[in-house]
Amino acid sequence: MKRSSILRNTFFAQLIAFIISSLTQSIGSLIDGVVIGQFLGTESIAAFGIVNPLITTFSVFGAIVSTGSRTRYTRLIGEGKKKDAQSIFSLSCILSIGFATVLMAIILPFASSIAKVLGASGNAANLLPKATDYLIGIAIGLPAMNAMKTLSGYMAIDNDRHLPAIASAVMTVTDVVLDLAVVFVFHGDTFEMGLATSLSYYAGVLVLLMHFLKKNTFLRFSVRYLKWKETGGIIVHGLPSGVCRVSNTLRSTFMNMLLSVIASTAAIAAYSVHRQSDSFLNPITLGMAETVAVLAGVLMGEENRAKLKKLLLLSVEATFAVTLGFALLMYFFAPQFSALFIKDNPEAMQMSVTAVRCYAIGMPFYGLNVIYQCYLQGIGESKMSLTAGFLLEAGFLMLSAGIMANFIGADAVWYAFPVTQVLMLIFYAIMIKVYSHRLRIRDKSLMDKIILMPDHFGVSEDEEMEKSIYSMDEVVELSRDIWNFCEARGCDKKRKFLLALSVEELAGNIIKHGFSNDDKEHSIDVRIVKNGDDYTLRVRDDCPVFDPAKQLELFNDEDPSRHIGLRMISNLAKDFQYNSFFKLNNLVIKV
């Protein structure tokens, strides 16, 4: 039987969107690093490297709110609670941007003290003025950074995958132009470079706001139906992302301070290049991880065990297919990449090449580790996700670097990255063993243990049927299968008739009007579940947006025999809901 392509196609389409969204958090830093390294010298790139990790923490609350609210939002969408989902979006905007504005006002007066804590002290005390200046310039853009992170993530869910790419392009061009103007026109230094990046983020936000000028957008910002009590739940769901960002900064600060004690400014500059390789490649792995988290949230809301397994298998396949290629390129072109940031300093250049190659070796395994950490977040296992995030981004890295530094010196800082990935895989194996035993899923398959779903999650295989169809020839067979499924479970004749007739008409209309609208291949996923005495029918397709409920309203006064199946079931069903997300049509009928 031909496998459904909807989950696979949606995964890769959303993957691109979330990679672009993740890039918005790192692309400004990457551009600054290249321009500073080429035109402002080794001291400036070292000062930039000291401050750069804090940029991740700058938007920590925005990351918590963005990720946590999206997890909650997709769960509500999966459950069919559209109004509650809309209120979550509005609340996330207020929380992330409002907090960022307050944080910016607090950071600016204490920039010098913060730069010292980050590592501009000891052997690196000469870097304090430049580090302070860059910190001030980049902090001004904190509200826009959070706004871009929050809005970009929601755009992909709300059927708009292209606008985040346009916003990122505008932001990139703006940053490049302003950075070059700083160097060649204004003859500025690190403050002006940071300010240029901040202004480019504001330009990107203006582009994203154009989404709300479009018709048929589900997202609406409104303070009318805000549910402030949801704040706690959003923070709990998003806390693992915040811990990852704080841990990232903690790890980088530790490494910079370690290098300032045991090595020279050249080593700190080399670690800055190591961080830039992370800025360049991490959006790929993070985009995959966020895709898994969001789709896992929807599938959790639908209580679809089988699709959760397929989602994880698909993410592993995608990780090795994508990250391995990028890692090989980064490994072999490490000298060229390092030359973008290091100029006229052979010692720093040699260490930078080693640092970049160590990152490349660990990248595919890092992809697997961060995907599973975000999967745990997506299914609501916040404590496990939080622990895994800390160990992945800081705990194991600092531990291994601290121990190895006694034997191999500065090289321990970059060798720690691949070593940590092995330690994380061992940690996950132990964690899955312990929790699967606690959940009493010892007799199930390995994938049942990996997804960490208890036996009571969803329904048994005997109480559900899922099928994908691709042509009109399969519609009658699908209707017959629905009838047989209901009959085998003692469903009364009236509901059997309604469900079979409804799915036949729905699938027929989708194929007739949706499949022929473009040259793409399409499919329909149909799932029926028996819960007690009730039956829930889910119909999902990847055709252009089409709301059958609105169509019924539109043709209400016409021939009553038209759309008879939909008319009957919409009148008699306990629930009849349509929504569109990820560019998919989703209809849920409960009888």
Description of the structure:
- There is one protein chain.
- The protein has 591 residues and is an alpha+beta fold.
- It folds into two domains: 433 residues, no CATH class; 129 residues, 2-Layer Sandwich (Heat Shock Protein 90).
- 71% of the residues lie in helices and 6% in strands.
- It has a five-stranded antiparallel β-sheet, covered by helices on one side.
- A hairpin with a 2-residue loop joins strand 2 and strand 3.
- Helix 13 packs antiparallel against helix 15.
- The chain is elongated, with a radius of gyration of 26 Å.
Question: What's this entry about, in short?
Answer:
This protein is α+β, with helices and mostly antiparallel strands and about 600 residues long. The protein has helices spanning about 5-25, 25-40, 40-60, 60-80, 80-105, 110-120, 130-140, 140-155, 165-185, 190-210, 230-260, 265-300, 305-330, 335-340, 345-380, 380-410, 410-440, 445-450, 475-490, 495-515, 550-555, 565-570, and strands spanning about 465-470, 525-530, 535-540, 575-580, 585-590. Helix 2 (about 25-40) packs antiparallel against helix 3 (about 40-60), helix 2 runs antiparallel to helix 12 and helix 12 (about 265-300) packs antiparallel against helix 13 (about 305-330).
Descriptors for this entry?
Heat Shock Protein 90, 2 domains, alpha+beta, single chain
Unreliable stretches, pLDDT < 50, 5 or more residues? none
Structural domains: how many: 2
- What is the helix/strand order? HHHHHHHHHHHHHHHHHHEHHEEHHEE
> Which of globular, elongated, flat, extended, rod-shaped describes the shape?
elongated
Count of distinct strands: 5
Portion in strands: 5-15%
Helix content: over 70%
The termini sit apart by 29 Å
